[in-house]
Task: inverse folding
């Protein structure tokens, strides 16, 4: 569903002409940020597998803050590790 803030990529279907160059370009522009985000989430998930198994009942502000703080810390540590690793190799 297209809206003013979200669009869908072009898809080729059986029996129809292939996508135009402009449609391929649009799909590439649309998909490249998503691929980067998916890669970053994969790295993050690989470094902190416990994120997949957080078992905590959110029963108020304090428990929600605890989950948010834990998640934020793992994001900061992952970012630091990636930057440190790239500075060591670059």
Result:
């Amino acid at each position: 569903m297209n809206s003013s803030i979200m669009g869908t990529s072009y898809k080729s279907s059986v029996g129809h002409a292939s996508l135009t160059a402009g449609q391929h370009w649009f799909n590439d522009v649309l998909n490249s940020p998503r691929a980067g985000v998916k890669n970053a989430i994969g790295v993050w998930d690989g470094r902190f597998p416990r994120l997949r198994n957080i078992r905590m009942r959110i029963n108020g502000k304090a428990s929600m803050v605890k989950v948010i703080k834990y998640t934020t810390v793992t994001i900061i540590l992952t970012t630091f590790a990636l930057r440190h690793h790239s500075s060591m190799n670059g």
Remarks:
- The two ends are 42 Å apart (CA to CA).
- Helices lie at 21-47, 61-89.
- The chain has one domain: 22-89.
- The mean pLDDT is 80.
